[in-house]
Amino acid sequence: MAVPASEVSMRGKTVLLTGATGGLGTATALALARRGAHLLLVGRNQLKLEALLAQVQQAGATMGGSAEILVADLSLLAQVQELAEEVTRRHSQLDVLINNAGIMGGPHTITSEGHELSWVTNHLAPFVLTNLLLPLLLAAPQGRIINVASEAHWLGQIEASREVRNARGRYSGITAYCDSKLANILFTNELAHRLDLTAITANSLHPGVVNTDLVNGEKPPLMRALWWLAKPIMVTPERGARTTVYLASSPEVARVSGRYFKNSRPGRCAERASNRAEANRLWRISAEETGIE
């Protein structure tokens, strides 16, 4: 008989969670703390991380859940590398890596390192962080990599050229977001293929249309309008976090890899998201742009 997700213990497991101070990230952190996990909480804002740390410690008190915080801006790959180095200094193994951090594109923005903001935050940062932390995941009895994607990937495509991707005249915040979510799934699938003979699994997921602050700030009017139209079908962050928590904790998926999940079940993704040649092409593009082989 399968153990209910709410009863699966994560005691003794170390979990790194990016985007921890957002709605979905916070809900994920609290749920895993209640299962006894030791959480490495990553965010950009020290004060928000400290406030979350107090919440997590309270939530995990009964089951022995604990946490530590790490400050990093994932839009800058130099900080992603520093984050990986700090995690490696502190820990000898990592049981679960949850690449949850993500943004929905606003104004056209190129970072100081020369990357379009959505592309680097949503895809290149997880690509770099995951590759740099693979030794810690390999050191765990059964490492799990979880990438939070979206149904928006159905509208995405992968541009081969950074110049095209960075061009202001071609930019659309919605398009940039969809492209990065397609990249999340392709990256996951190629990662699962490359890790096939290891104890590490890699899966992606759609959390649902979650009622968070993803479109707060300076966003295009169309994006804000679509978001408000979707309000009636939105789910809470707590419900949106269920699939992530399931993939992080359930023994049912201990050997499942390279799948796209919705509502804690394997789901259908776009045909191009399952294309091996496209996944391999994305890996080459990502390696060239980050210097990570």
From TrEMBL:
Pfam families with a match to the protein in the record: adh_short
InterPro entries to which the protein is assigned, alphabetical: NAD(P)-bd_dom_sf, SDR_fam
Any one GO MF annotation of this record: oxidoreductase activity
SUPFAM superfamilies hit by this protein: NAD(P)-binding Rossmann-fold domains
Keywords: Oxidoreductase
Top-rank taxon: Bacteria
Entry's family note: Belongs to the short-chain dehydrogenases/reductases (SDR) family.
Protein name: SDR family oxidoreductase
Species: Hymenobacter lutimineralis
Lineage: Bacteria, Pseudomonadati, Bacteroidota, Cytophagia, Cytophagales
